[in-house]
Amino acid sequence: MMLKALWLVTTETFLLLRRDRIFLPVLLCTLVIAAFANIASDWSIADFTKVLFDIGFFGFQLTGALVAMLWGTKLIADARRDGTLEVQLAQPVGRVTWILGRFLGLALCLLLLGGLVLAIWQVFMLLNDFGRMSSAQLVGFAFVVLGWLVLGALATAAATLLKQSLAFFCTLALWLAGMASTLVASTLGASTPEITRKLVTGLARMWDLQQFNLVDHTLAAGWVALPELAYRAAYGGLLVLALITFACIIFACRDATEA
Amino acid sequence: MEAVSRDMSEEAPARPRDVGKPAALELDQVRKVYAGEPFKKRHVAVDGLTCRFEAGTCTGLLGHNGAGKTTTIRLILGLIRPDSGRILFEGALLTTATKRFIGYMPEVNKLSGALTPLEILHRTLKLYAPEHIRTRAQRREAVDRKLIEVGLDGHRKKRVAQLSKGMARRLAWAQATIHAPRLLILDEPASGLDPLGRRHMLGWIEQEKQRGAGILLCTHELQQVATLCDDIHVLRRGCLVKTQAACGKDAAGDKPRYGLAVSGLDEPTLLALAQNGSLPEWQGYRREGFLTELEFAAYQDGVRWLGAVIARGLVVVRFGEVGRVREEELLSYFEGES
Prior knowledge:
The structure holds 2 protein chains of 2 kinds. By secondary structure, chain A is mainly α. Chain A has one domain (2-253). Helices cover 81% and strands 0% of the residues of chain A. Chain A has helices at 2-18, 23-43, 48-82, 84-90, 95-127, 135-161, 164-186, 194-206, 215-219, 226-253. By secondary structure, chain B is an alpha/beta fold. Chain B is built from 9 helices and 15 strands. Chain B starts with a strand and ends with a helix. Chains A and B meet through helix 1 and helix 4 of A and helix 2 of B.
């Protein structure tokens, strides 16, 4: 019964997001990014491939991250605002099932989006006579999508606790913090107290979203070692799990209509 | 208005059908306090609410704005949790699993605008999985039948956002009842409907009642209460202040009563007729201006009085089953609160 309910909430969420008015504009946006990367790399005096991948991957990372944050917060806030949450929870659907279903639907839609973006990118690769994408590039792309999923989970967790706008800005701030965390940690000088250094380094390690950006390794001759790759993937999965567990606990404990 | 009708007791006595049988829904000392935002006072929305909603009857949940009706419905649906007390469905604690026997129609359209009626009804049936609808073919047939019944057959593939308000209400009704629930929770079911739509809606509610579903009707339309409800619960500031049989059924015998409204029947004439000896006693008497209303336990008693007053040349304004709770009586519960 619970699995059936979970499946139905997941498929419904997927359907809602696929029909969301920003789905097609996002695809269009990625198309523009890919085209822009292509043009910029043509004009560039630097390495053609590096410019193409740097701009392309950064653009995809940014677009997907923004969409994941927007959808993650919107899914719950909209359900609260337009009352669909009331109708759905009046049905034999538990709160935890509902939140899980919402996130899984979001994850499915982000995977679909990732697949479509990948297809667009592949077309541009073929146009530039690069042929089919290498497995390293595909893994790099998979990690970009994993980063989206982490942000989707973060946004979902924030939305169970806060109103939509606040949840979105908190997620945005945490995303920026995650992108800059290792950079900030590396700037600590020798005069920094040991305790501060440990704290900042620990936090930077815990919330390092740059680890899902493998674009440099994608192009470099030396690919990330397999254990390191497995560690990063597992850590991403763990982050998603932790954030969704947090969302489930919060959503189960509070009044469902409360934000 | 002088009233010598039956006594309106604060607590309606249990009827024979209630004894030993669990109610469709029972709230037992349910209390809900909203903590409110920081620096704001705590607000007691529902305070020790105890009431029953019987199977096969329509029970009105009434009260002024802010009386606690919406909170009560949200508590029943599990959207918010009670601070104390229990909510029982057919004698057992209401859980997510037992919600499959409940249907809910909210006050306004709260269905996903991006979905179609076809998708919504199919999904509902898959989720509730009622005993009589198991296979895909049965599901398809049930959805088709429901869409035809509510007049949405031609709009099955339109998105909900494209439906008119009335259509969305009919879809909400279809969604709430397609799985033949044992308990139906209706929040202002006729709001936003045109007169014909309202008539259809009232007919559908009556059909559900005939089917044996318990109905919790939350409405501000007192005429609907008077027409549909068998019982009413009146809330005031989160407390139950009145429980009463709303229909014209005798509290002990479950029998209907009959009323005869006559214009120009003054007291001397009435007494003269009563002293005649051949006419039966009335059960209730009201007089307002020129209008006198008599109530009888038996239909034949009413008919005999009807013949007598016609023979006297008096004008009969109304004769038939009465005892439905009167609007003005219901209004008295709201005085000073709204």
